[in-house]
């Protein structure tokens, strides 16, 4: 079926050298006590200093044009770096969203001024972005958003709120989907635009949502007459929905959608090998096979995105299957080890298991719920 065609990707030989370089770097960072491995690192692992060090290595904005601070490397090279960072569990949350989707969105729809101003700062690991989509009274129905920007002299006045906003408390900017025109009953997706909000601006309030782990990476964000200059509109007024949907392909198809609990899986395999648990190793091999399939699908989409091939349908598949896989790793660990999970444990397996168990309920919610994704998939397959 053409809608589900994804290329099979064979990584070039030189990929091994880049992979080795990233691993050497991460080992040195850990040895010097600057970072430690963590599950769900791309949302809960924050280190501004580490993001800057990655920027100096040229590992943020890797595929972007050099004129905007990028390095003009391939999507596969970027994939290798992202994969290694996630597999290690490095603290990449600061720059992750900006590198993954905010930067590509600006490259595709932004003005020259926006590209010149924001992209070099993102690539250097000094400017962090978050995404303002979900709202308290909209649930999973993104078309029901009510946050509104009213035109005023020289810009817009933004009023409303966003919820479940990852990283808003350490981000500098938010790309906010809002209404800039009255809702059309015949087209619920019309009249929306994307604005870049300076989170230090007057009228912005950020309130934390604390997780079961005691950690803080979700937030509520409120806007009260926040002034947004005209030059902070992304693309064309009224095109926000289409732009946002194009952006979601980047959000849903990357390796972070199935590697959030990989540090636990890796540690569990090491434990099973050490104990000689052949039954457990046979069982975990099935997880390894699924991981390989997800990785190949994700790699193929990375190539498609580089070629500007629409990938929302296949990206939804990765997100749906990948986040369920992440949750199953946590359940598998509970079944095949006698270690007691604890976030305060000095035992690596115990700590990683606790992190995975406590954080896993959110995996199938963030970035689009399972039900919403399956609706997208079903409609896409029927159209094909």
Question: Any overview of this molecule?
Answer:
The chain folds into 3 domains: about 1-125, Acyl-CoA dehydrogenase/oxidase, N-terminal domain (Butyryl-Coa Dehydrogenase, subunit A, domain 1), CATH 1.10.540.10; about 130-240, Butyryl-CoA Dehydrogenase, subunit A, domain 2; about 255-384, Butyryl-CoA Dehydrogenase, subunit A, domain 3. It starts with 14 loop residues before the first helix and ends with a helix. With about 375 residues, it is an alpha+beta fold. Helix 8 (about 260-275) packs parallel to helix 10 and helix 9 (about 280-305) runs antiparallel to helix 10. Helices cover about 45% and strands about 15% of the residues. About 45% of the residues are buried. It has 12 helices and 8 strands. The strands form 2 sheets. The chain has a 4-stranded mixed β-sheet, covered by helices on one side. Strands 2-3-7-6 form a 4-stranded antiparallel β-sheet, with no helix packed on it. The mean pLDDT is about 90. A hairpin with a 2-residue loop joins strand 2 and strand 3.
């Amino acid at each position: 079926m053409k809608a589900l065609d994804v290329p099979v990707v064979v990584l070039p030989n030189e990929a091994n050298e880049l992979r080795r370089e990233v691993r050497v770097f991460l080992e040195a960072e850990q040895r010097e006590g600057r970072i430690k491995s963590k599950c769900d690192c791309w949302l809960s692992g924050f280190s501004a200093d580490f993001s800057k060090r990655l920027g100096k290595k040229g590992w943020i904005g890797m595929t972007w044009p050099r004129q905007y601070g990028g390095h003009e490397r391939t999507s596969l090279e970027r994939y290798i770096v992202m994969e290694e960072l996630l597999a290690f569990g490095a603290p990449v949350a600061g720059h992750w969203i900006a590198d993954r989707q905010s930067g590509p969105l600006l490259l595709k729809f932004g003005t020259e001024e926006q590209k010149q101003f924001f992209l070099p700062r993102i690539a250097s690991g000094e400017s962090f972005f978050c995404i303002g989509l979900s709202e308290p009274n909209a649930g999973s129905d993104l078309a029901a958003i009510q946050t509104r920007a009213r035109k005023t002299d020289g810009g817009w006045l933004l009023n409303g709120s966003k919820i479940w906003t990852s990283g808003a408390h350490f981000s500098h900017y938010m790309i906010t989907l809002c209404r800039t025109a009255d809702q059309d009953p015949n087209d619920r997706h019309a009249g929306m635009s994307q604005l870049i909000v300076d989170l230090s601006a007057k009228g912005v309030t950020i309130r934390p949502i604390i997780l079961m782990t005691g950690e803080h990476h979700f937030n509520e964000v409120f806007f009260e007459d926040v002034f947004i200059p005209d030059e902070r509109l992304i693309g064309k007024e009224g095109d926000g929905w289409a732009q946002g949907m194009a952006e979601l392909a980047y959000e849903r198809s990357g390796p972070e959608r199935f590697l959030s609990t990989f540090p636990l899986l890796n540690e569990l395999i090491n434990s099973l090998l050490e104990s000689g648990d052949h039954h457990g190793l046979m069982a975990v091999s099935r997880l390894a096979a699924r991981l390989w399939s997800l990785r190949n699908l994700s790699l193929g989409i990375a190539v498609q995105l580089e070629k500007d091939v629409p990938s929302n349908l296949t990206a939804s598949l990765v997100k749906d299957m990948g986040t369920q896989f992440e949750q199953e790793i946590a359940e598998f660990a509970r079944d095949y080890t006698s270690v007691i999970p604890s976030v305060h444990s000095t035992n690596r397996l115990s700590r990683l298991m606790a992190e995975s168990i406590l954080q896993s309920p959110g995996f199938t919610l963030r970035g689009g719920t399972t039900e919403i994704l399956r609706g997208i998939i079903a409609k896409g397959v029927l159209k094909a």
